[in-house]
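look at this record:
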Amino acid sequence: RGYFVLSSGINAEYGEKERLDSELKLIGEFGLRNKREVWRVKYTLAKIRKAARELLTLEDKDPRRLFEGNAILRRLVRIGVLDENRMKLDYVLGLKTEDFLERRLQTQVFKLGLAKSIHHARVLIRQKHIRVRKQVVNIPSFIVRLDAQKHIDIAINSAYGSGREGRVKRKRMRAGAGGAGDNDEDED
């Protein structure tokens, strides 16, 4: 196999251009930080598909296939990657990377309209403005289960919610009031 130089100046093997382009497209579509995030999801999917392939080689009534197969299917349905009406190991092999990326908290926050863009969603999550149920979550790659999807909201103590105003807003209000305002001394 030979090497060639991409327009960005990176050496790549022939036949890699499609993979590189598809990874870059996923990064842009789902607002990921780098390719490692794509690779991590691909690796998770590969492990799940490998387990399903191995179980499919066993007999239909094999106890291991029944037990482990049901466990995989239940887990995938619970996180929302697989539909309940498609609970068969054959459908696990048809899963795509996008199915898992759709379940990330970052994507869910954007889809629910809590953020203006997918990148804004990531910033809101990292700055602890988003909660799932009563727990503040600051991990954009947090996998949202189906039962928790309804409970994604702005954090209670966030400046976007009912919490106190941010540092800059407090400073401007104090400057606008001529300095005769709050006695908060926690600004930089």
